[in-house]
Write a structure and sequence with these properties.
The complex is a heterodimer of chains A (485) and B (100). With 485 residues, chain A is mainly alpha-helical. Helix content of chain A is 72%, strand content 3%. Chain A has one domain. Chain A is built from 24 helices and six strands. In chain A, the strands form two sheets. Chain A has a three-stranded parallel beta sheet with strand order 5-1-6. Chain A has a three-stranded parallel beta sheet with strand order 2-4-3. Chain B has one domain: Response regulator (Rossmann fold), CATH 3.40.50.2300. The chains are: A mainly alpha (485), B alpha/beta (100).
């Protein structure tokens, strides 16, 4: 542990000199070489990543320039305070992988996952989803920046990882049955909603409430425009800029500003996926070679689940329909939701990722998915708002603010950043709360978290069928796949 | 006869799985010396894409392309499970389109 902290400190010093856009790709290159990805692929990946990071900073600068005055004015004149701009999962991945804990956990987590799987303590093989480690390490980074302790951060990362794996084991058959994929499961953020959906479903079954399934084939075509970054950027941009200019709407110059800023926000939304695509390329060689290696040597088990990127669950028709209905509902509630400080933006098109963890539990029931999603995502926004300040601090430390003046100026005016999808995880929020509490509360909190985890883990290992069925799988499917005798 | 095949690759966000599958398809087509152009898209765009001969998606979808391009599930290239069989199917489909 001491050695890790020392490595971390050294890297941070060098990062201060060269900047994260150079150092992070270098670190990823070294890790890739260490994992025997091959020099050419590792080098290519690192260059793409450096380019992606540079463009990410530039795009963030453009966004902050356009949005800062309106967000500030909206708070002053209309009283809607949403100072934390949602910069998407891309933002969280950049911040997490630019912090020491983020890349050190790539190696630590890989070791832990392989060990747990080899000892048959878990049935999910997570290294295939190594790219998405940042989604739970996010909470560990928040713990580190709240407490100032690297060791607590590592401990929180391990705890979050265990929770993610337990949920992955529980929802695997349900996901497989609903989506028609054998052997796959989720270890990324969409699975965070599954426990809530399981509770809602359990209550519904106890109260004998039944809903009528609604067909949504047509909805997808009609509402499709909502899911596009361009239209989301325009709609959100117009709304924020108009709300931020209520005192001067009679003036033609005000409208010039409104239109220019809205188009700028739409432009950022359109270019953002390409920019993050470049950043992602840095980690693809690593994650692909882990996958390739993972495939050999898995065969001596009765069954196991392979953790997979949520993109493979996105395209289900019912799932996309539920997400398209939820986009305006969640967004407009978030604006008036007391306690929410996040301006949802870059992650709005990612709604269908998030519903993938709910809809399988409800066996494709769109209505239940929409109702539960509207509650869950808004509660999550309030909890996520609590960590945005720490997340912004982590971003500053990762060098995000120092690249562009407009970003540091926005931060100094009290604005900050959020990552909607990654921060939408009330289960891991509780883990963070326990690890970041003060004094005795921390000890008690950690004991409670470990005790609850162990209780559910042991109950699941003892009677997997009950948990699998509660997560939405049918007994027929479990028999057919050989999960139960 | 077509001079080159035009392929769209689509996933949830048009980023992660798309990039992986696109690189794999490029390798396959280069190996077979088939000229191609390939572009990333999102699954939500599949019904309205125009000007493509073939669409490969990385996640299951019931979406069909209105312009008539066949939609293939390219998940095997991402997971590696069944990748060889998919490669054969892909090449068969590509060659059939090229011969038209």
């Amino acid at each position: 542990m001491q050695a890790l902290i020392q490595i971390g400190n050294t890297v941070n010093t060098i990062m201060g000199i060269f900047g994260s856009t150079i150092i992070v790709p270098v670190v990823i290159f070294i890790i890739s070489m260490f994992m025997r990805v091959g020099a050419k692929k590792s080098f290519q990946g690192a260059i793409y990543m450096a380019v992606g990071l540079t463009l990410f900073n530039a795009v963030l600068g453009v966004l902050m320039t356009a949005i800062t005055p309106y967000v500030t004015a909206m708070a002053d004149h209309v009283g809607i305070r949403l100072p934390y701009i949602d910069i998407g999962w891309q933002g969280a991945s950049v911040v997490v992988y630019s912090n020491t804990l983020g890349y050190i956990y790539l190696v630590l987590g890989l070791g832990l996952n392989l060990l747990l799987f080899a000892l048959k303590l878990v049935d999910t093989f997570q290294p295939t989803d190594i790219w998405n480690y940042y989604q739970f390490v996010f909470w560990a980074v928040i713990v580190q920046f709240t407490t100032g302790s690297f060791a607590l951060g590592v401990a929180a990362a391990v705890m979050c990882n265990l929770v993610v794996l337990l949920i992955a084991d529980i929802i695997a058959p349900s996901l497989q049955e609903f989506n028609g994929y054998d052997n796959l499961t989720l270890t990324s953020v969409p699975s965070g909603g599954a426990p809530f959906a399981m509770i809602v479903r359990w209550i519904m079954l106890k109260l004998k409430i039944k809903t009528k399934p609604i067909s949504a084939e047509r909805l997808q075509e009609k509402l499709g425009f909502w899911g596009e970054p361009l239209s989301i950027g325009l709609v959100v941009g117009l709304l924020i800029t108009i709300l931020g200019s209520v005192t001067g709407l009679a003036n033609v110059n005000t409208w010039a500003g409104i239109l220019t800023a809205s188009i700028t926000i739409a432009a950022v939304m359109v270019i953002y996926p390409s920019v993050s695509g470049l950043f992602v390329k840095g980690l693809i060689p690593l994650s692909q070679s882990m996958q390739a290696r993972a495939r050999s040597g898995n065969s001596n088990r009765k069954y196991f689940h392979i953790a997979m990127d949520p993109a493979v669950f996105f395209g289900n028709g019912d799932n996309m329909a539920a997400a398209l209905i939820l986009i305006p509902i969640v967004f407009f509630i978030s604006i008036i939701m007391p306690g929410n400080k996040i301006l949802m933006l870059a992650d709005i098109p990612a709604m269908a990722f998030m519903t993938a963890g709910l809809i399988c539990v409800f066996r494709g029931d769109i209505l239940m998915t929409v109702i539960s999603g509207a509650i869950w995502f808004n509660v999550a926004n309030v909890l996520n708002s609590d960590v945005c300040a720490a997340f912004t601090k982590a971003a500053e430390s990762a060098g995000v603010a120092s690249q562009m003046d407009s970003v540091s100026s926005a931060f100094s005016q009290g604005l900050g950043i959020a990552s909607w999808t990654v921060g939408t995880n009330p289960v891991l929020y509780l883990v963070y709360k326990a690890f970041a509490a003060d004094g005795m509360m921390r000890v008690i909190g950690i004991i409670i978290v470990v005790a609850v985890y162990l209780a559910i883990y042991l109950s699941f290992r003892k009677n997997k069928k009950v948990w699998w069925v509660a997560a939405g799988a049918s007994e027929e499917y479990l028999m057919q796949r050989g999960y139960i005798e | 006869m077509k001079a080159k095949i035009s392929i769209a690759v689509a996933c949830g966000g048009g980023i992660f799985t798309t990039t992986v599958v696109t690189d794999k398809i490029k390798d396959i087509l280069k190996k077979e010396k088939i000229p191609f152009s390939i572009n990333p898209h999102k699954i939500t765009e599949v019904p309205n894409l125009e000007g493509y001969d073939l669409i490969v998606v990385t996640g299951k979808t019931n979406a069909k392309n209105k312009a008539g391009a066949p939609v293939m599930l390219g998940l095997p290239l991402f997971t590696g499970v069944g990748a060889e069989q998919f490669t054969e199917e892909l090449l068969e489909a590509v060659k059939k389109i090229m011969d038209e």
